[in-house]
Amino acid sequence: MAKTFGKVVIATVIGYVAGLLFAPKAGKETRADLKNKANDLKSEADVKKAQLKRATKEGVQSFKQGAAKVEKEARGMAKSATNSAKVVQAEASQLASEAKERAAHMKHDSEVTAKHVKADFKRNIK
Predict the structure, then answer these.
(1) Cα 91 to the chain's mean position, in Å?
(2) Does the model's pTM come out above 0.70?
(3) Distance between CA atoms of 32 and 12, rounded to whole angstroms?
(4) From CA 12, how far away is CA 20, in angstroms rounded?
(5) How far apart are CA 67 and CA 114, in angstroms?
(6) Can you tell me the distance from the alpha carbon of 19 to that of 14, in angstroms, rounded to the nearest whole number?
């Protein structure tokens, strides 16, 4: 779109200059008209430059604010994930400890049961 706009501006300037050059005015008047038009174009360009500068500054400021917000959110998520990982690790450690204790109880109960079965078997075989 910027290229098209630039082409339109250039074509307009060329048409204007050609019209001035071929118009039935004195050279002095034509030069004055060209100078006035050049000054007008410079003023318009200065306005556009100022608008572009302001828009760029505002865009950069918005980008920085957005980036800071995203960074803050990412840091919060990372902290939350770290805390969650610590909780999960603690729970896993506790579950492992409980499983180990239950396995020891099961082993003990199995050994007692095996002794009882062995004793019952011996008693019934005699």
Answers:
(1) 34
(2) no
(3) 18
(4) 12
(5) 68
(6) 8
pLDDT one digit per residue (tens) for the chain, 126 residues: 666 767 777 878 787 777 766 666 667 777 788 788 889 989 999 999 999 999 999 999 999 999 999 999 999 999 999 999 999 999 999 999 999 999 999 999 999 998 998 888 888 886
Burial class (CB in 10 A: 0-12, 13-18, 19+), 94: exposed
41, two tokens: 């174009």
